[in-house]
Each structure stands twice: as structure tokens, then as C-alpha cells.
Amino acid sequence: MQRSQVRKRGLYVGRFQPFHKGHLEAVKWILTQVAEAVIVVGSAQYSHTPENPFEAGERLTMIRKALDEVGIPRERCEVLPVPDIHTHGVWVEHIVSYVPRFDVVFANDSLTKRLFHEDGRFPVKPIPFYDREKFNATEIRKRIVQGGGWVELLPRTVVDYILEIDGVQRIQDLAKSDKVP
Amino acid sequence: MQRSQVRKRGLYVGRFQPFHKGHLEAVKWILTQVAEAVIVVGSAQYSHTPENPFEAGERLTMIRKALDEVGIPRERCEVLPVPDIHTHGVWVEHIVSYVPRFDVVFANDSLTKRLFHEDGRFPVKPIPFYDREKFNATEIRKRIVQGGGWVELLPRTVVDYILEIDGVQRIQDLAKSDKVP
Amino acid sequence: MQRSQVRKRGLYVGRFQPFHKGHLEAVKWILTQVAEAVIVVGSAQYSHTPENPFEAGERLTMIRKALDEVGIPRERCEVLPVPDIHTHGVWVEHIVSYVPRFDVVFANDSLTKRLFHEDGRFPVKPIPFYDREKFNATEIRKRIVQGGGWVELLPRTVVDYILEIDGVQRIQDLAKSDKVP
Amino acid sequence: MQRSQVRKRGLYVGRFQPFHKGHLEAVKWILTQVAEAVIVVGSAQYSHTPENPFEAGERLTMIRKALDEVGIPRERCEVLPVPDIHTHGVWVEHIVSYVPRFDVVFANDSLTKRLFHEDGRFPVKPIPFYDREKFNATEIRKRIVQGGGWVELLPRTVVDYILEIDGVQRIQDLAKSDKVP
Amino acid sequence: MQRSQVRKRGLYVGRFQPFHKGHLEAVKWILTQVAEAVIVVGSAQYSHTPENPFEAGERLTMIRKALDEVGIPRERCEVLPVPDIHTHGVWVEHIVSYVPRFDVVFANDSLTKRLFHEDGRFPVKPIPFYDREKFNATEIRKRIVQGGGWVELLPRTVVDYILEIDGVQRIQDLAKSDKVP
Amino acid sequence: MQRSQVRKRGLYVGRFQPFHKGHLEAVKWILTQVAEAVIVVGSAQYSHTPENPFEAGERLTMIRKALDEVGIPRERCEVLPVPDIHTHGVWVEHIVSYVPRFDVVFANDSLTKRLFHEDGRFPVKPIPFYDREKFNATEIRKRIVQGGGWVELLPRTVVDYILEIDGVQRIQDLAKSDKVP
Fold first, then answer.
1. Average pLDDT over residues D90-110
2. Whole-angstrom distance, CA of residue F33 vs CA of residue F104
3. Predicted pLDDT of residue A6
4. What is the mean pLDDT of each run of 10 residues along chain E (181 residues)?
5. C176/D110 CB distance under 8 A
6. Whether the Cβ atoms of residue C179 and residue D111 lie closer than 8 Å to each other
């Protein structure tokens, strides 16, 4: 008890498709506000679609590599996969049941903010944007499909990992498909 | 048995996001055709999305308030939440299993009509439209996002209830979100 | 708002397989405590199993008939089907999203009490038992399988309805089956 | 149309865990009653449990081998996997949506018979038992766990196939497990 | 074992909404490459939507009729319904569990090819296109909605079957619907 | 790449209801075999049942506290929630998609061993038992229900945490319930 009273934990939810420098800056900033971050990798069951190309395990790996790259110690970040349930009315409770206790939510998205606001148990704080036009996962996936201009938007170790798992070709293949298997 | 033979029941299915004056006119007209209406609040598990902003319980409340407002007695309307199952081939049977026996279906939507037509057990009757261009839930949600011109399209008690539960701000927040949590 | 402040609503959750005199006594007692009861017919998607022989719509019908039989006016009882979700960690929130606002929960079951207790938003009150050994749905289904001694345990209109829908034979057939289709 | 009027099709549903000589006798008998059999391999999504050790594809393979072994021509038997949905109220409609039109249902199980009886669209006929005490999948799985006395209860090609896919060891492993992964 | 070594089986996955001459040519070509085809009718649980108008059983029937029309013997084609699971990360394993063993996958779609490529167990081969602009299910459904020019794109028996089950009117009704029940 | 070649990762799957000294000994032993352990908290969506009393987040917390108690550094253990899917045929692939790459599986349960054995991609190694009769979650939950003799079977910090979250009373309440909400 003692410890959780002194060490505040902040929740940060995203899909991280992929995890980019804007996400990394957000985590760094969150860690100036609280002692520990709980990073939820949402939509964990989905992968191999244009909007969700990477598996949860792959996204966890990207995040771990990026945190190591900038020297954030493991004990300050819990990174956890949580599947979507598609019923927003119970979404906050669903997240709460999958993660350790937290004290504050960090979010910019208006839906995430609204759901936590209606729940009423946790304060919700905005995250300063880090050049959102550029550091934006939708934009990054589009550039990967088009074949250029995305490498500088991701941490170097994440770029290496995406190349290692043949992620560029995967995203391009997904973009070409006109059917869902 | 005696009673169900003399008192006909009509089924009316909708999402009621939100319940507006067109819906209320439909219920009033249905009650000129049958003794009792079974109003199914469909997609009951969904809420907090642009197309389904309100929870099933909130929609039930809207309908109850609107029926009270115009003096329709409770014993003439059963209002029941039913979740979506997304497999249309069993949808009629799914609805049938959630509600009391009914004798006739009132519907204008071509999919609802087709599914009941293929099932073949119930007559399907159209509902006279009540200025459909205006009294249309999609249009009403759009106006709520834009901030005006919707109040006169809903029963007064439904407007009050939406304001009471902060529904305008919710719908505007949902419209601004670019992600699904 | 005014109205919900003066008219308290109580929640009562059950599977009602079938709705018996013990349930009816519980509803009558609840209506001495609050102005309105919200009766949730749980496990709404299940039917035709030994533990859940009746469909949600059939159970709603039983309850409506029993309430009419003893003269409880419709405006005092909302009877609503709610499906199971099997994830107890979000169960309270799931129920809340399906029903109108309520002020107090009436429950004897230790799991229901615990889930609402952990949620913390609603007071939970016990319901006086009405000869629980006899008025017990498991016992009643057993007697129906064995062929006797159950008629006096149910409201007369519920007995008539079960006979009308061939429910005795259904329960006996389900008991004989050694497979699940 | 002409053809379906003259060539009657019969539906036969089972889990076939595994497909034994009793099942094969049933198919042979059904083919004396109708021109074609539609054999539904139910619970298709389940495998690797004590009650459902074999995958749907493995069970389809067993059935095909057994039919070939006794010379039943392929055009007389459609063998189709269908997953469980666990909501018996829509089960008949679910089966109907997965298979070609059929004219009659062959079933001994009281639940299957009841569900089709309540649906009312198809005649349901019993299948003569073929020494049910012995030719019984539950008994056969028990004997496989215990290590003997099961070989003569299955068609020879099914025995060979189970040995080929290491099915004996699988069933024994499943029986030893005290957890579900 | 002997047999599966000499008789190669090829997998071919589609939704077949509806089964057209391009599909039929693909099956004929596949049967020049392998002894047997396993034709998976995907998205088996869906029907009565603009993209998935026909039930799995109806699509199985179309395929059987088309194969009979051109004289492909039943023992060379297994036609099997498989439902969607929407989690692509386990999709290959899901298909594998529903069908008999196969040796090679025939596919043109980039997603299907990618998923099997990442799995790594089966060679994936392209299918020569048969005038893809014309013989394309999306185009065919569009023409059915518009009311003409589709008959020559389907095998004659499939056209007859679609007319027999009132499929043209169904597709036109689905196109008119603005809601999902 | 370099790093994953030199630092081997081992997978360890359990429900950890609750995490006891036997589990902790297993983790300590695994870390003598590999550089890093990926601990999967299975059945993550379930809680508040007699077999699964604790939420995934609570179980993650127990494990973190126990690892800290014995001084296992965070960078050697990834602890991840993964929900059940109930289709064992795709279970290995499901796990693989949720977690970072691993090299070896540590398991004693015959089902887990069989599923990974049939998959064939990962070596599976047994874990030396640590007085299994005593250090057994089923036994521990039974003792908690009965009210004694369990404290010494869990790490001290886990005992404290269970008391802090009122876990003893929860387990006793769940044991008394005769219904599932």
C-alpha cells in the first residue's frame, strides 16, 4: 500500500500500429508526470489488416526496443496487450480488469477521454502533441505503402525490427488485397 | 390463449439513436392497428459510437418518457433491448426468442422486410412515413454534432433527458474521435 | 429528474427458469420498498437446456402473466431481457448499460451481492426468503422431469402458459438428451 | 427443382468423436430411406478436449475414409463442418443456413428431435440403433484412454487414420490434463 | 498414407458471392494441377448483406450445381463451409483445423498469399485469371442491383438457382436498406 | 537479431489463481535455463468465479510483487495477460500472436505439452515440481474457502495483496453462490 501511495501510475492506451517517435515522446512526458506508466496495446487480437498490420506481440516488441533505445528502465513501464471488445459501455471496466491499479489516465482522443470522464473514477490528462501531422500512425502506414519517407518517423530500433520481420512487404500486401480471408 | 387471440401484438424494431417524433408517430399509428406494440431496441450492446451514441438503457428511458408524454399507457407497449448478432440468416429467430409472441411486423426497411418475408411466419406491413427527410436519426445526430436545429425533431421529454445525461457533448466528442478504443 | 428523485427504482436479476411463487413474492416485497422494479431476465440468449429450458421471450411472458394475476400494475415493473457475457469483471457495467437508472439492488445470491459490492455505486439489500426449499427453480425443474408436484409452486397463469407451450414435454426431452446440438 | 423433388435429402447431425461403426450403420440405413445424406460434423470449432479430441477436418477425413471403405459413392453424401453457437433457440436456423436444402431429419437424440419438432418445418425420423451400448463415442473414448478394446468398434480405415495422426496418444494426454490452456 | 502421397490436394478459398464462371475456370485449372480440390466457402456465417447476400448452404449448392454442369466428378472436389473469425493472426490455423489435409494453396489475393507465406507450411501458387474485369463477384452483384448484364457471367445452373431462390430480389432489397437489423 | 540469438526466451503459461510459491519456484528455475521468461496470465478475461477468482490485472500485480520480493529483475520477466479463446486447434498460434518471440516452452500440463508438440515449432521442457500436492492453486482456493492453512503457501507479498483487495471474502462469497449472474 505504502508504495502505491507514493509511486503514481499513469495509463496510456494505444494501438501502436506502429509505435513511432510521437508515441515515444508521449511516454517520456508521461514519465515526468508519474513514477510508472501502464502502456496498453489495444486491439490486441487484430493483425494483418491495413489498419492493424502488426500482431500484439510484435507491437510489444517494438515498444520494448524503443524504450530500451532511449534508456527508459523496465520497472517504469508495464506494456500489456488488451483485446478489443467493441462494447464501449463496458470498455473502461474491461481495461481496468486487465491492468494493475493506476491513478490517472493520459489521453488526447476524445472517445477515450469521454469514456473515462463518464466513468468518473480517474482524472484524465492531455498529452502535449509532438508534431502530430508527421508523427501519426495512419500517415506512417500510408508512407510505407507508398514506399518512402517513413524511416525517420520511428525510433531506429523499431525501423530495424519492422525490416527484420518483413513488415514493409506485409503492409504493402495488405494494401493490395481486396478481400478479407 | 383467449386474450392473445383477441389482442393482436405488433413488432416494431429500431435502434432509436435517438428516439424522435417520427418514431413516436410510428408507434401511435401502430397502436391504431394492433392492441399492443413490442418495441425492440436493437443493437442493444452498442453505445458511444457515432452511429450508436446511446446505451440501450438510455434508449429505453427515452422511449418510456416519450410514450408517457403523449399518454400511451404502459400496458400497450413492451419496450425490450435485444443485442445484435450479425448473422442475418438467424436474425428473425433471434428476435423471436427474445420477445413475447407477436402477430404482425411493422417495418419500412427493406432488409427487415426481406428477412421476415423469407421467414414466412409473420405478415409484414409498412408504416406511413412522417416527413422522413426531417425525422431521421442520422440527420438528427448530424445536427447535434453541428450544434443546432434538432430540438424540435424530438419529443420534449427526450430532449430534456438528452440534456440531462450530457448527450449533446457525448455525440460531439464521438464525432471528433479518430480512433476506437 | 424530479420524478426519479421521488420514485425509487430497485433492480432484481434472475434467470426465472421458470418464474415461480417465490419470485413473485420477492417482486411484491420489493414493491413495498421502492416505487418501481426493474426485473432483469438474465441469460437471455439461452434456452432449451436442462438449466435454461425457456426462451427469454417465454420468461418475459410468464412474468407479465404472473404480475397481471396478482394485479401489479405495469407501470411499476419494467421486465427486460439481458444476455450473459461470462466476464464477471464487467458484469455490473453490462447490466447498467441495458437498463434504466436504478437506485438499489435487491439480491440474495452471494455472487450478485459481491459484484455490486465491489462496484460500490449501489446499495445492495437482501430479499426475505419465501420457503426457499420449496420455491426453488432447480427443484421445480427436477419435479417437472419426474412428472409431479410442481403445479402448486407456480402462479396459476404461469402453469397454464407452460402447458400451452408444451413446456413439460420440452423439459423432459432436454433431461433425456445426452448431447448438445 | 425437378431433381430435388425426386431425390430426397436427409440431414444427419453428430459430433463424430470419433466416427464409429454405429455411425456408419446409421448412414447406410439413411441411404435406404433417401437418395442423399447431408452429414453435419457439429461442434466444428472444438478439438483437443476430452469430449472433442479431433478437429473438424480430421473428422471429415474419418467419415470420407469410412464411406469409401464400404463403397458409398461420394455423390450420395455431403459431409459438412458446422460450428456450435450455444444458443439453442436459433440452432435449427443456424444449421439450415450452413447446408443445402434437405427434406427430412434423422435423429435419435431427444434435444435434436425437440428443436426440429418445435421448428416444425421438417419431419424427424428415428434411426434404428446398432448395439448402442458398444457403439458409442463416449465409451470408445474411455476405452482409448484405458488402452484397449476399441479397435473393433471403428471402421478399419478410421482406426488406421487415428493411429496415423497419433490420436491414441492425444486422447490419453487430454485425459491426463487438469487444466484448459 | 500411400494415397495422400500420390493424390495431391489443393486448397482454394473464396466467399463465392455468387459462384461465377471465373471461379469455375479456376477450379477446372486447379484440377489440372492436383488430383483433388478442397473448396472453402468462407464467411460462412454471413448472409443477407450487400457483400454477402447468399447463405453458406446456398453457395455450396451453387458450387455443386456448377461442378455437375461441367461434369467434374464429386470425388475430386470437397466443398466446405468455414466461418470467419476476424483474427488474421490465427486464420491459417483456423482453416487447417476445418479441412482435410492439403498440399498446396491456390490463391491470387495478396492477403491470403501473405498469411500462408508467413505460416510457411504450404506452397502458394497463383491461379491464371479468366478475364477478371468481367468475372468478378463485386461487379456481378452491382449488375444484379442495376438489373441486367449478369446472366452470362454465371454458369447456367447457378443462374437458374439464383432465380429459383428469389436471389435477384434479395440482392436488390439489400441494396436499398439503410440499416442493419 | 544479435541479442535474441544470445538471450534465449522461455514461455510459461498459467492461470495463477493465485500465484503461489510453486509458481515462483518454477519461474526461478526457468531463469536458470533461459535469459528471459515470458509469463502468460491465461484466461485473462475471467474473474469472480470459483476457479478464476482474480482479475488479470490482480494476477499481474501478484506476480510482480512476488518477483520483486525475491529480487528477480524486471528485465528478465515479461508478464502478459492473454484471454482464452476455447478453440484449442488455434491456441498455440493465438498465444504466439500475443507475445514476443520465444525459443522454448516450459510446461508440465499434458494438454499444453500436446498442443505445442503437435505445432512442432518449439521445444517443450518439463519444470521440476516443487511439492505439488501442497503448492497447488486448486488446493489453495479450497483452503481459502475453508478459512485456514493457505498463508504459508504463497509469497508473503501475495498474501498481503490478497488481504488488501479483500480476496479471502471474495473467494468465500463465490463458493457460496449457486448461480452465475
1. 97
2. 10
3. 65
4. 68 98 98 98 97 98 98 97 97 98 97 97 94 92 95 98 98 86 45
5. yes
6. yes
Task: Give the closest residue to F127 by CA, choosing from F23, F5, F18, F8.
Answer: F23
Is residue B4 over pLDDT 50?
no
What pLDDT sits at residue D6?
Answer: 65
Phi/psi for A122 (5° steps) reads: -125, 140
Shortest Cα distance, chain D CAs vs residue B93, angstroms: 6
**Which residues face D41 on adjacent strands?**
D14, D81
ipTM above threshold 0.85: yes
Q: Closest Cα of chain A to B80: distance in Å? A: 18
Handedness of CA E131, E135, E138, E139 (dihedral sign): positive
- Are E143 and E164 in contact, with CB atoms under 8 Å apart? no
Q: How far apart (Å, rounded) are the C-alpha atoms in residues B70 and C147?
A: 49
Is the pLDDT at C131 greater than 90, yes or no? no
E2 has a chain F CB within 8 A of its CB: no
Closest by Cβ to A173, choosing from E86, E91, E110? E110
What is the C-alpha separation between E166 and E58, in angstroms, rounded?
12
Radius of gyration of chain D (CA): 16
Mean of per-residue pLDDT scores for chain C: 94
User: What does the alpha-carbon distance between residue C117 and residue D20 come to, in Å, rounded to a whole number?
Assistant: 52
Q: Which of E113, E44, E31, E129 is nearest to E74 (CA)?
A: E31
Instruction: Report helix, strand or coil for E85.
Output: coil
Which value, in Å, is the radius of gyration of the alpha carbons in chain A? 16
Nearest-by-Cβ selection for A181 from E91, E118, E138: E91
Nearest CA in chain C to A90: C93
Residue with cell 439464383: E162
For chain E, the straight-line distance linking the first and the last C-alpha, in angstroms and rounded, comes to 49
Handedness of CA F134, F139, F144, F149 (dihedral sign): negative
Outline where chain C has alpha helix (H): 2-6, 21-33, 56-69, 91-98, 110-119, 137-146, 156-164, 167-176
Q: Tell me whether strands C36-41 and C9-14 are parallel, antiparallel or unpaired.
A: parallel
Supply the DSSP symbol for F91.
Answer: H
Residue C111 forms contact with F (CB below 8 Å): yes
pLDDT tens, position by position, D20-41 = 999 999 999 999 999 999 999 9
What 3-state class would DSSP assign to A81?
Answer: strand
Residue F17: is its pLDDT beyond 70? yes
Contact (CB<8Å) B178/A109: yes
Go through the domains of chain F in sequence order and give each one's CATH number: 2-170 (3.40.50.620)
Contact B112, B13 (CB under 8 A): yes
CB atoms within 10 A of CB D77: 19
Describe the crossing of helices D156-164 and D167-176 by its angle, rounded to 10 degrees: 70
Residue position matching grid coordinates 423432459? C172
Of all residues in chain D, the one with the smallest CA distance to E161 is: D1
Q: State the Cα–Cα distance between residues A171 and A139, nearest whole angstrom.
A: 13
Which residues, at least 6 apart from D32, have a Cβ–Cβ distance to it below 8 Å?
A: none
Q: How far lies C141's CA from each of C151, C163, D107, in Å?
A: 11, 14, 25
What are phi and psi for residue A27, nearest 5 degrees?
Answer: -65, -45
D180 pLDDT exceeds 80?
Answer: no
* Rg (alpha carbons) of chain F, rounded to whole number: 16
B28 within 8 A of B70, measured Cβ to Cβ: yes
Cell of F104: 522454448
Say whether pLDDT at A162 is over 80: yes
CA distance D83 to D40: 10
Q: Which residues contact B5 (CB under 8 A, 6 or more apart)?
A: none
Helix (H, G, I), strand (E, B), or coil: what is residue C9?
A: strand
Quote the CA–CA distance of F43 and F54 in Å, as a whole number. 10
Q: Which pLDDT does position D3 carry in this prediction?
A: 47
Does C2 score more than 50 pLDDT? Answer: no
